[in-house]
Amino acid sequence: MESGNLLSSPLRVNGVTLRNRVVMPAFGLKYCGMDRQPSERLAAFYEARARGGCGLIVIGGVGIDLTGSGFMVPSIESDELIASWASLIARVKRHGAAIFLQLFHAGRYQHSMLAKGQQSVAPSAVPSRYTGETPRELTEAEILEIQEKFVQAARRAQEAGADGVELIASAGYLICQFLSPLTNLRQDRYGGSFENRCRFGVEVISKVRGVVGPAYPIGVRISGNEFMPGGNTNDEIIEICRAFEAAGADLFNVTGGWHETRVPQLPSMVPAGAFSYLARRIRRRVATPVVASNRIVTPEQAESMLADGSCDLVSIGRAQIADPDWASKATESRGNEIRPCVGCLQGCLDRLFLMQPVQCLCNPLAGFEDKRHVLQAAQPRRIVVVGAGPAGMEAALTAHRRGHDVLLLERNTEVGGQLPLVAAPPGRGEFRRLLDYYRGALAREGVPVRLGFPATLDAVQESGADSVILATGARPVRPPIPGIDFPHVLDAWDVLGGKRVSGPRVVILGGGAVGVEVALHLASVGTIDAETLKFLFRHEAESTDVLRELISRGTLDVTVVEVRRKIGEDIGHTNRWVFLKELEQHHVTLNVETRVTAVTTDGVLCERGSEAVTLPADCVVCALGVRSENGLAEPLRKAGFDVRVVGDASKPRNIMEAVHEGFLAGAAV
Who contacts 12 (Cβ-Cβ below 8 Å, separation ≥6)? Predict the structure, then answer.
């Protein structure tokens, strides 16, 4: 088969033929209620992805009992639930996608508060850093009971019409805990030797096979490397997969790490497809199909992995949250139309850690498929959108899709607002793809854009507007600190926009998200790039220690000053620890609980408790917040216009809120 057609080619997995090589992996969505039944919201979400062309959708995790899954995930632990699953599965399958249910037991990763106070269970009583709790060690009799729960859950999934099941043996959940020497300290037939540690998973697969029959697909979601010191590496996982294959597994969906892993797996700073090697090494040693996972976002990346033999299928997870039509666009050579995932994790993982339903920064319809709709306007009108940042562009596109006559005004010579600034720091370049999407969509759909046009009341009146959406954003502010207006003081936006700093010593005022991003942006100046590192490493030009220094220490000495107790308090849980690790690796000096009292010509004066501190500085960067720019709103209202203020123009927040507000405004006018 020619390269370039692999993604759209069918593949047989045991008795089921998938229409293409695109897999949507299971992940938490929190779209179900306390009754743990599959909900309308869940059905609408997955139906949209099936309609969008996905080949295989894995729904889950789906709990096999309350102790192992809690009330945050839907359940298939009783026969009474078969009918509701059958209804959801039928709705999704009618669009041509194959459906697997992922059977889930968290083991020691289960919070007791989510299981109505029940203590979690595990192979051994090893405390969990993820929950802060210690599980109860399972008896052999209880192990057999849990295996039977997996078996009966698989039977119910089959009866409900699912095309297959997937057993989760990744992320540090129960099957992982039996496999790993870190969490399995048993001395009976389920612990100790490698063979004994594999026994639980092998028996689950074998027993499930005995119930579902020889042709029914059984997949396994596996951590290709635990990335835990002393845990299973890819070498051990290969042998585990071979044992699972012999027991009856038909498909391996390969991810990486546990929840406790300190190797980032999903944020935007992870290079695209960085962990495909885990799948590639497994694929060489097993006969069953293998799925590659983690940070695969473009059709070109996916096609390349299939072509070079890294995998048989590609796991497109968060990218299909961002665009439910990813698969059809990818297989129809319309990749330039894909609304991208930028790897921010703000709408997905960050919200899950706050026990909130998944949304998406880039896609305001994700998770709202049953509620938000772009309906044709009963009476098309003239809509003027002022400001072409994320909120304004989303508003303009949505209003245009409703059939309105839309005009988008932007005072700058390019669209994008703050997106180019957000994309400037290392590891944040994915945001450029969101900007490219908006540029392309505006052009493809014929939305008129007038650049270099500062909107005024007269200009809006002359435009013939019936309604105005004001998306004029925000501007940086400088607090009244003595010396804050010296020439060597720059705004963070100027630095992210490409303005060079003077001198090697840089002090950044403000340790919130913007301050952290500026710090990493400046700390990377003068470091070697990945291609140079690869060349030097391959030729053994320098020692590992020297190479580590060359990629982490640049030419600038960067210091951050923050008045609060923590750096990056406004950064989401799933990204903050990664940013802090990057700051440490780049030798950025952090000062917390430190108040700036003045800026001098050669430094910054601070107070830390009762101590006076002077920080030498050749350049000072101000990252102390922004204020809304919405001065046009009141004059427009007084002139009789229907005005909606969105994004930072309403209140400075983040891009996700801007995109969602832009959509809602465009859908409402």
Answer: 18
Task: Please tell me the distance from the alpha carbon of residue 173 to that of residue 193, in angstroms, as a whole number.
Answer: 20
pLDDT, residue 503, reads 86
Q: Examine the domain organization and report whether 241 and 277 are in the same domain.
A: yes
Query: Above pLDDT 70, what percent of the chain?
Result: 99
Domain count, the chain: 3
pLDDT in tens, 401-447: 999 999 999 999 999 999 999 999 998 999 999 999 999 999 999 99
- What is the rounded CA–CA span in Å between residue 515 and residue 624? 8
In the chain, how many H helices and how many E strands? 23, 27
Evaluate if residue 2 carries a pLDDT over 70. Answer: no
**Cβ 266 vs Cβ 342: under 8 Å:** no
- 205-237 pLDDT tens trace: 999 999 999 999 999 999 999 999 999 999 999
Q: Where are any strands of DSSP class E within 227-359?
A: 251-255, 290-292, 313-315
Measured torsion, CA atoms of residues 87, 321, 50, 393, in degrees rounded to the nearest 10: 120
Mean pLDDT of all residues belonging to the chain: 96
Helices 234-247 and 276-283 pack at an angle, to 10 degrees, of: 50
Within 15-146, strands assigned E span 16-18, 22-24, 56-63, 98-104, 121-122, 136-137
In this structure, the answer to whether residues 456 and 572 fall within a common structural domain is no
Of the pLDDT bands very low, low, confident and very high (cuts 50, 70, 90), residue 72 is confident
Cβ 255 vs Cβ 221: under 8 Å: yes
> Would you say the pTM of this structure is higher than 0.90?
yes
Q: Are residues 334 and 391 in the same domain?
A: no
Question: Which CA distances in Å does 413 have to 18, 385, 451, 494?
Answer: 47, 16, 5, 16
Provide the CATH number for the domain around residue 654: 3.40.50.720
E-strand stretches of 108-225? 121-122, 136-137, 164-169, 218-223
Confidence label for 4 from pLDDT (cuts 50, 70 and 90): low
Beta bridge partners of 167: 103, 220
Q: Are 395 and 441 in contact (CB under 8 A)?
A: no
List Cβ neighbours of 162 (8 Å cut-off, separation of 6 or more): 85, 89, 99, 100, 101
452 and 506, same structural domain? no
Looking at residue 618, which CATH number applies to its domain? 3.50.50.60
527: containing domain: 478-624
Q: Are residues 452 and 504 in the same domain?
A: no
> Residue 376 falls within a domain, yes or no?
no
Q: Are residues 281 and 386 in the same domain?
A: no
